[in-house]
User: Which sequence fits this backbone?
């Protein structure tokens, strides 16, 4: 849908559903995690949902996304199978990576979700490479690369910016800036917070969204992608956001002393799940919420009832061409 088209009630409901599904799924992951039924570390996106939803809602099924180890939101926003994701967290054979990858390695190529990686910054050049393939394919498809503010300190980030700009590749660089690289704030890592300024030196248009507004993010991406489909080059978004839970795990961590709870409370006042939900008709919102709860419970049941991988999986996917 063109960005200039006013969002309909159905559009807003769809966006709310995506936001709510991610929020409630991760809250359930946090609830289950202490039982040890989930077999991998989890990096939750609670509080950050609007970035993935705003970007992915402006894309088509044919477009490609490349996420990070904090990738549940990207996976679900792009249409990834919730049952397969939950089974993957449980380490089950029915998982999206057949139980071998866990939370940090979600993949769903039927929805063009590239495999995520636990290594900071490594998926950025993969998205750029895919964007080059898409440009040569000539069908107007685009790629979106998600990464945290910490990844912008990796050399490959700048190499990727230069290459994408030089070849006018159809890639949306999306920095989910939550102000911390694990526990270290930007103030102790960056001499200047002018990230968009650094990126613009490569001749790439930049946008800085400081309130995590899902509609603003969607509009910018939709406009940018429309240009890319006609041969335009890359664009960069710095989306300020805030994770409500600890860096890795289901708990809060404000007692650790590296950040203050008042920061999170400020972000709560603009929580996009609540804000967009308030724009949806009350009866529709209740119906959507109920559908989501049923979907999540079905995914949990599926994961718990699925088998673990058999011993033969040790020898699968070792060499190219193996199924």
Assistant:
């Amino acid at each position: 849908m063109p960005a200039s088209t006013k969002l309909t009630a159905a559009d807003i409901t769809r966006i709310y559903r995506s936001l709510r599904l991610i929020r409630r799924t991760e809250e359930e992951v946090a609830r289950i995690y202490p039982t040890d039924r989930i077999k991998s570390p989890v990096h939750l996106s609670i509080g950050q949902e609007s970035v993935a939803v705003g970007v992915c809602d402006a894309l088509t099924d044919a477009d490609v996304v490349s996420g990070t180890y904090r990738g549940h939101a990207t996976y679900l926003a792009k249409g990834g199978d919730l049952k397969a994701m939950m089974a993957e967290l449980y380490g089950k054979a029915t998982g999206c990576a057949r139980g071998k990858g866990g939370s940090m390695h979600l993949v769903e190529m039927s929805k063009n979700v590239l495999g995520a990686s636990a290594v900071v910054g490594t998926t950025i050049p993969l998205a750029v490479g895919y964007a080059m393939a898409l440009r040569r394919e000539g069908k107007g498809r685009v790629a979106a690369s998600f990464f945290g503010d910490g990844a912008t300190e990796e050399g490959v980030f700048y190499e990727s910016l230069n290459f994408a700009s030089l070849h006018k590749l159809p890639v949306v660089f999306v920095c989910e800036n939550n102000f911390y690289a694990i526990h270290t704030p930007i103030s102790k890592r960056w001499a200047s917070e002018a990230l968009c300024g650094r990126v613009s030196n490569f001749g790439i248009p930049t946008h800085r969204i400081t309130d995590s507004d899902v509609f603003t993010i969607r509009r910018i991406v939709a406009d940018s992608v429309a240009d890319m489909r006609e041969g335009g080059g890359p664009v960069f978004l710095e989306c300020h956001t805030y994770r409500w839970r600890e860096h890795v795990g289901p708990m809060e961590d404000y007692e650790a002393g590296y950040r203050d709870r008042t920061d999170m409370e400020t972000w709560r006042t603009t929580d996009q799940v609540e804000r967009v939900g308030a724009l949806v008709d009350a009866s529709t919102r209740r119906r959507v919420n109920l559908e989501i709860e049923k979907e999540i419970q079905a995914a949990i049941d599926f994961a718990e009832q699925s088998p673990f991988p058999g011993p033969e999986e040790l020898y699968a996917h070792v060499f190219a061409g193996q199924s």
